[in-house]
Design brief:
Number of strands: 5
Strand content: 5-15%
Pfam families: DNA_photolyase, FAD_binding_7
Number of helices: 20
CATH topology of the largest domain: DNA Cyclobutane Dipyrimidine Photolyase, subunit A, domain 3
Helix content: 40-55%
EC number: 4.1.99.3
CATH architecture of the largest domain: Orthogonal Bundle
Catalytic activity: cyclobutadipyrimidine (in DNA) = 2 pyrimidine residues (in DNA)
Strand order of the largest sheet: 3-2-1-4-5
Order of helices and strands: EHEHHEHEHEHHHHHHHHHHHHHHH
Number of domains: 3
CATH class of the largest domain: Mainly Alpha
Enzyme class: lyase
Shape: globular
Organism: Pseudomonas fluorescens
Radius of gyration: 24 Å
Largest sheet: 5 strands, parallel
Length: about 475
């Protein structure tokens, strides 16, 4: 009798429903799941403690869901991804595994890891099966007419829409209950050394599990998506889906999100409800940056997408960098946004752009400092999206803001938090100020009980001039391509 089994290696796909590799493995024969703890690799990749905690909490939820399908979940440790081939090969030989099934991940280190594991397994006669799952389109299948990866989002989006009109990615059925195996699941650890456990208040903001992810998606698609375009830029309003954390860990899939958006919009991509169309565009932005990661590997290596910007004369300003990191720049919208990040592991998307432009333009500090700090604190930290956002804001990336487009934090604050509600929530020391003064307490000269709030660490006007000069002095000055940014 054939006693071989299938192994599903879980990574950023912590869900039972619409999980391509899991369903494929279970369809072949008896299935076992494994998750690798890789703390040294996570530290090297600047993964946030709250993000690792979120993974573990979702893994515990998934272990229970897999248990109901009689699929054991095993936990193994491979401190670095270089250890993965040996650890997985030993497990496969121990369990008489016929094939290992994975959902594709992207990035240089991920690709090298998977190639090394596949080679080690295949050398011993164990099959390697990988599947498209965390994207709607496989990288390399959405290309320009000359066969290159798109560098402008609007062009990429147009091709994606054409493809989606012709063939909509379907949802994958969940596995059936299999016959019980003589193998027990391992206990999922609640902590990993090197990553302190976040407070219960942060955990309460981000409950684990597929049921919570689907609840958020359903609530958004049913009640909020209509207002997404008009309210998504206002951080005091519940205008966003709050799903990025669940997408980053694979607790919900982009296919599930796309289907929910289309269902709310009578199947329309580009017409109907502007909120649904705008949100589908955001799903495609996520897609775009993943494709960039594959098509232009230098962005995985902490390199600028635009090579000429590597020559920028970034400032070494450790005190100003620390003030930015610690939410004491003296500019309320910046400090409120940074406190939101530090306390919740998340920041509103509009504010991510505002604080990134402030760091890279007004302070003229290297975007990589901000990218790293964000990854070390974001519960939804994702290399492609985080790198793409930082390079967009710093005018070093693909389809980025032209260098002379510099957000003014004061005008952004007045426009998107006009009543000061968001600022006062995160900066209670400014709660008594009126809605005019709260954006710029420096105008008050330390009166009215805000003496403890710091003065601005930089002059916005002169620092803007300094940034423009730095970009203009590049050997090959970046020009505005026109119409490339959204």
């Amino acid at each position: 009798m054939d006693t071989s089994m299938q192994l599903i290696w879980l990574r950023s796909d912590l869900r039972v429903h619409d999980n391509t590799a899991l369903s494929a493995a279970a369809a072949v024969g008896p299935c076992v799941a494994v998750y690798l703890l890789s703390p040294e690799q996570w530290l090297e990749h600047d993964d946030a403690p709250c993000k690792v905690d979120f993974w573990l909490r979702n893994l515990a939820e998934m272990s229970q869901a897999l248990g109901e399908l009689n699929i054991p979940l095993l936990i193994r440790t491979a401190p670095r991804w270089d250890d993965a081939p040996k650890v997985l090969l030993e497990l496969c030989q121990q369990l008489n595994i016929d094939a290992v099934h994975v959902n594709e991940e992207y990035g240089i280190h991920e690709s090298r890891r998977d190639a090394a594991v596949a080679q080690a397994l295949q050398a011993k006669g164990i099959q390697w099966r990988s599947y498209l799952d965390q994207l709607l389109f496989a990288p390399g299948t959405v290309l320009t007419k000359t066969g290159t990866y798109f560098q402008v989002f609007s062009q990429f989006r147009k091709v994606c829409y054409d493809r989606l009109h012709r063939s909509l990615p379907g949802l994958v059925s969940a596995p059936m209950v299999q016959s019980p195996l003589a193998l027990d699941s391992d206990a999922v650890p609640s902590t990993v050394e090197g990553f302190e456990t976040p407070g219960e208040s942060l955990r309460a903001l981000w409950p684990a599990g597929e049921a919570e992810a689907r609840r958020r998606l359903d609530t958004f698609a049913d009640a909020q998506i209509d207002y997404y375009k008009s309210e998504r830029d206002f951080p005091a309003k519940p205008g966003t889906s709050q799903l990025s954390t669940y997408l980053a860990a694979g607790v919900i899939s982009p296919r599930q999100c796309l289907h929910a958006a289309l269902q709310s919009n009578q199947g329309e991509f580009e017409s109907g409800k502007v909120g649904a169309v705008t949100w589908i565009n955001e799903l495609l932005w996520r897609e775009f940056y993943k494709h960039i990661l594959v098509g232009y590997p230098r962005v995985s290596r902490h390199r600028a997408f635009r090579p000429e910007t590597e020559a920028l004369a970034w400032r070494q300003a450790p005190d100003e960098l620390a003030a930015w990191q610690q939410a004491r720049t003296g500019l309320p919208i910046i400090d409120a946004a940074m406190r939101q990040l530090l306390e919740t592991g998340w920041m509103h998307n509009r504010l991510r752009m505002v604080v990134a432009m402030f760091l890279t333009k007004n302070l003229l500090i290297d975007w990589r400092e901000g990218e790293r700090f964000f990854m070390r604190h974001l519960i939804d930290g994702d290399l492609a999206a985080n790198n793409g956002g930082w390079q967009w804001s710093s005018s070093t990336g693909t389809d980025s803001a032209p260098y002379f487009r510099i957000f003014n934090p004061l005008s952004q604050s007045e426009k998107f938090d006009p009543e000061g509600i968001f600022i006062k929530h995160w900066l209670p020391e400014l709660a008594e100020l009126n809605k005019k003064d709260v954006h710029n307490p420096a105008n008050l000269g330390g009166l009215f009980g805000v003496a403890d709030y710091p003065s601005p660490i930089v002059n916005l006007s002169t620092s803007r001039t300094r940034a423009l000069a730095a970009f203009k002095n590049l050997p090959s000055r970046q020009q505005d391509a026109g119409g490339g940014y959204e």
